[in-house]
């Protein structure tokens, strides 16, 4: 909600100088201090002026930028409804010749500073390596009164540039993994402790699949207690899902969960969630489990277990939420059960979802009950977050998911979704850019902050600023990527759906996370667009390089789908490697067992085809 109050525009800087001071509390929260630093740093870049930061004890009078709660702010006696702002909402308001940016205790103030810099001053943080900061030695702002409470309590982008501290903070992401140091060295290591990200939500332990994969039931238990583990085809299977009916399982999981919380002071959520993979080959089929599963659905068994863990944990840790997945064999909502008040259901219908069409309108999604299932989970749960799974391990592959973004995030907000885990890549690919990954991460960060964000305008702005004179060609490419005529049929994973829901397949559909084969003739057209795009910016090396990094996805698809006798095949093979190397794209995709297909090995295989 934006309303102008008063009628005084204020001049924050004049001809590279300022007499404004940034005023914060004497002992501000670390993220408020970080917010003041970010504001001073950016205003200096914009105006050339130094904006000193003073504590409120020493500051009075006018021409102040008051950042965060403080005595100086109290003295203004503004009618700010802090309760209504919640942990992350904020107010940006001109008061006389001063400016106030303040908000809720978790990340309200810092969210307000970034919103001010972006929406009022015009800063754009497109990627970790590329921002646009306007230069205005004289900086005036109109009277403003902005109040915003983010509609989603949890905002998590997994992939692209989202592992970068500055970028994540500036995009107002607020949910993080704890176990981040296992990924790209130096990139995410200090994520949790960083002042710019303080107040974020982070998981104790791994954020999903914790009942498997050596999580809350550690493999070390296997030797003494094979009976804790799944009975599959007559043998105990250490890597499976636990035996959910074993009487020791609940105390064991609760005990380990408490240990995880203790090891990660400050964590606000912990996941109790099934192993990845299907149930037939990974679930327990002992007679006791079989008896229970004859009476309850797989979802119901999971929900009952998670509710019992939550009821135990809440006694010692009322502030830690218990997250579980509604995924694969637990995706369909239970009947006649409700979730414990301290739980989060993360709804992961991604692999079965068509993202080409709107979630609630596509006939395949309807046949599969994707949106209806979400609504039902929302009805029985205190909070539902959505795992939006647009990309699996094949990140350089173009995917047609942009057309539905704007509609989908508004529809999910209106339905009552409270948070998002957006997956645009897989694990160690985090640092990789390439293709449209950076743009994807940017757009998703924007819509999970505010679903009313204008996605099409965002795409155009991103392209205009990033690609300059090449922007029109890149926009044509993006249009082709998001047009069904560029693709052949349905992705491999969707084949079973073709048989299951034949009537839905009178149209083209995608399957989240799975790549849709592309038409060689369309790839030739895309390749030609990039020839023109590169020519348009041939004398601007930085812009040219950004164009080439996007082009990698076309070259990758050419190498996958075009015949090696096609002239663009040899051309793609020649041009891919040096750009990928400079961009640090160490592998081109990850396959089903999550093994990496290393770029040089992939290219070697393609070279062999040429001979
Ligand atoms: Zn069992
Ligand atoms: Zn569809």
Descriptive overview:
The protein is α/β, with parallel strands linked by helices. Helices cover 38% and strands 16% of the residues. The chain is built from 20 helices and 22 strands. The strands form six sheets. It has an eight-stranded parallel beta sheet with strand order 11-20-19-18-17-16-13-12. Helix 12 links the parallel strand 19 and strand 20. Helix 17 runs antiparallel to helix 18. The chain is globular. Residues 179-189 have low confidence and may be disordered. Residues 354, 356-357, 362, 364, 509 line the site of one zinc ion.
- Lateral strand order in the biggest sheet: 11-20-19-18-17-16-13-12
Query: Considering DSSP H and I runs of 4 or more, what fraction of the residues is helical?
Result: 25-40%
Uncertain segments are: 179-189
The DSSP helix count reads: 20
Largest sheet: 8 strands, parallel
The gyration radius over C-alpha positions equals: 26 Å
Strand content: 15-25%
- Number of separate strands: 22
Tell me which ligands are bound: zinc ion
